[in-house]
Amino acid sequence: MPLDRKPVRLDPRLTWFSGVHRLLSPMAGVTDRPFRDICRRFGADMGFCEFASASGLTYGGEATWKLVDTEGEDALVGVQIFGNDPGHMAGAARLLGDRRMDVLDINFGCPAKKVVKKCGGSALLADVPLLERIVKAVVESSAVPVTAKIRTGWDEDSVNYREVGLLLQELGMGWVTMHGRTRSQKFSGQADWDRIADLVETLDIPVIGNGDVVDGASYRAMVEHTRCHGVMIGRGAIGNPWIFAEMTAVDEDREAPSIPFAEMCEVTCDHIRGEVAQRGENQGCLVVRKHIARTFRGYPGAAALRKELYAAPDSSTMMAILTEAGALGDPRLMGVAVGEDDAGESGDQGGIRGGSAD
């Protein structure tokens, strides 16, 4: 049975968004071009670059501009910027005018300390007048439609998502994405889908739900609970691009495909090739290790496979290990009792650091 989504008013420039329901969230160190391409392979309708500092773009920071890696990208893609200076935000929007992108998103949701301490991201939910000035400046300067991502508020004593959502709609946002937690919660506790449902009913423009969707079942549950236009996936996609295959199966009312272990190995090899081509040997391998920490979680003996991959000196060795494991069903897993995978193992190799996720 098709999912029930609330009818919405679309910006005339965003008629294509009517069929967009599965989105990849902007995440620092995660959602670069190679990973976006892989997520699209499994059913992501739209992907976002890693979020970028407006000040960094304004001052011409090379590392910041590399985050806007959309040249030649045919599929739907968004760029997200953050900052607390309306002039810098407007300047970044103008500078991005010749970049390939379908929307420009403003980050009012990131809870990361390094962003919030500069009064960026979710800190602006506690300063609505400044948030309003920023939105007006960006809308006036952007060559593409502008959207925004928010949280439910700064903390439980200042929940203001309805006020902010209505303001964003009035100021011309194409849609609003809301993570169902306050900034003070960060990623603890449970996302409040009731508040997402309330924002859906409050606004005429599309609302994208975000928070605690980890598979096809939770995707269905969020849409049924909130009637949101779509769902944005953050942490649930790290090391797990096939979450979008499960979501697609829900939208097409069919059984979700089973992803064989061999295919997981093959996809990881493709990811390694893409990251090394874009970032270079050392950095490319490091980025993929973040995903590997989660990719094989739950398989008996996966800890041994991960350790071998972490210890590999280069991308060629990593891919050789994965190719052998996929072809042989992974000899490292044979004879290991189910449950002996150390699914909780993390460490520096596997931690996802420094980014807004989910």
Features:
358 residues, TIM Barrel, 2 domains, eight-stranded parallel barrel, 14 helices, 9 strands, globular
List the helices and strands and how they pair.
Blueprint: E1 22-24, H1 33-41, E2 46-48, E3 52-53, H2 54-58, H3 62-65, E4 77-82, H4 86-95, E5 103-108, H5 113-116, H6 128-141, E6 146-151, H7 161-170, E7 176-179, H8 193-202, E8 207-210, H9 216-226, E9 230-233, H10 243-251, H11 261-279, H12 281-295, H13 302-311, H14 315-328
Parallel strand pairs: 1-2, 1-9, 2-4, 3-4, 4-5, 5-6, 6-7, 7-8, 8-9
- CATH architecture field of the largest domain: Alpha-Beta Barrel
Tally of individual domains: 2
**Spans of at least 5 consecutive residues with low confidence:** 334-357
Q: What does the overall shape look like? A: globular
> Nearest-angstrom radius of gyration?
20 Å
User: How far is the first residue's CA from the last residue's CA?
Assistant: 27 Å
CATH third-tier fold name of the largest domain:
TIM Barrel
Q: Summarize the biggest pleated sheet.
A: 8 strands, parallel, barrel
Number of strands: 9
